Amino acid sequence: MPTHHIAVLPGDGIGPEIVAEAVKVLQRLSKDGLDLQLEFADVGGAAYAKHGHPLPEATLALAKKADAVLFGAVGDWKYDNLERHLRPEQAILGLRKHLGLFANLRPAICYAELAAASSLKPELVGGLDILIVRELTGDIYFGQPRGRRTASDGHFPGSEEGFDTMRYSRPEIERIAHVAFQAARKRGKKVTSVDKANVLETSQLWREVVTQVAQQYPDVQLDHMYVDNAAMQLVKAPKSFDVIVTGNLFGDILSDEAAMLTGSIGMLPSASLDANNKGLFEPSHGSAPDIAGQGVANPLATILSAAMLLRYSLGQPQAADRIGAAVQRVLADGLRTPDIYAPGTTKVGTAQMGDAVVRAMG
Ligand code: IPM
Ligand code: MG
Question: Whole-model pTM?
């Protein structure tokens, strides 16, 4: 059996607490003979405080060498006034860029037990299961040129301005479209491509290319939607979606919206994959510095991220299923962290929840 090397980057805020629970789950699998080697490194504000940079060379080297990365969260108010290149967010952006993690998979699943926690009516979200496929290394996030300058034209020539560049090349669109169509084949066989082709050149190319790629997937239904309409449809009829494929910026926004439909962002994992299915796996939520250190954060999104890591990067679907079933079991048993608590259920803390999942793994 091969040794799987996992780089573990807990980060800031609740990151260390929730990652600790996912590590317990991985260690449970090791006990049963799965050869997992976990190596820890600093990232985000925690790394800045110790090493003067949010993504130290050693951390990047470890992440590159590993078979997969388990990531907690980064960001803390303490670091809000740092220059942009030293802010904790640069760590995650740097990892995406340097590891070539272009495909971000963000499932939004509404567990039956938690439908009441959604801000939408339970009948709109009960059984919701959509997958957002977000392009992650292009678009206005990384497009050059960008910067600050004195405007030479526009509405106020001579004034200070900030600018960014939205851009996508044909191959970048092609590869993310393939990820979406292949994912749809294993699910509801429907892809909705989201763009702003009524206004943006980038989106017009996006729409053209996605339409061309779709010809290779005649068994998958494709439709196109403008991003403003998609934001509306997500709250109006979320279950009408199966797979959504979109660019980096629109995906950032829509994936938070979709996550919240499910009642708790504390439940949702994510995967960011390169061309060879090596990936970084992290909860969809952030570092929540307001509750850090209190032992109340929900570790399930991170535990489910570890399951995605096993499925996508390590080729261990059975181990992934075992974790998924254990999470279902603790929810069915009524255990809830405060973010998903409802009267009649049992409120537990971060570590208790992690321990319960480990027990439920048998
Ligand atoms: C996300 C986050 C990041 C993003 C931030 C932290 C840079 O919001 O992963 O969605 O905008 O991509
Ligand atoms: Mg975001």
Answer: 0.93
Convert 344-358 into a string of H (helix), E (strand) and C (coil).
CCEECCHHHHHHHHH
Ligand nearest to the CA of 135: 1
Distance 257 CA to ligand 2 centre (A): 10
**Is 92 close to ligand 1, i.e. is its CB under 6 Å away?**
yes
Name the closest ligand to CA 249.
1
Per-residue pLDDT tens over the stretch 24-69? 999 999 999 999 999 999 999 999 999 999 999 999 999 999 999 9
User: Rounded distance, CA 118 to CA 140, Å?
Assistant: 31
* Beta strands 279-283 and 160-163, pairing class: unpaired
Mutation probe of ligand 1 site: the residue of 77, 92, 248, 260 with most atoms within 8 A of C-beta: 92
Alpha-carbon Rg for the chain, nearest whole angstrom, is 20
Report d(CA 144, CA 289) in Å as an integer. Answer: 32
The residue whose CB lies within 8 Å of the most ligand 1 atoms, and thus the one to mutate among 89, 133, 135, is: 89
Q: In the chain, what are the domain boundaries?
A: 1-103+266-362
In tens, the pLDDT along 277-292 reads 999 999 998 999 999 9
Q: Is the CB of 253 under 6 A from ligand 1?
A: no
DSSP per-residue codes, 215-266: TT-TTSEEEEEEHHHHHHHHHH-GGG-SEEEE-HHHHHHHHHHHHHHTS-GG
Strands annotated E in the chain: 4-11, 36-40, 68-73, 103-109, 129-135, 147-150, 160-163, 190-195, 221-226, 243-246, 269-273, 279-283, 335-336, 346-347
Fold of 1-103+266-362: Isopropylmalate Dehydrogenase (3.40.718)
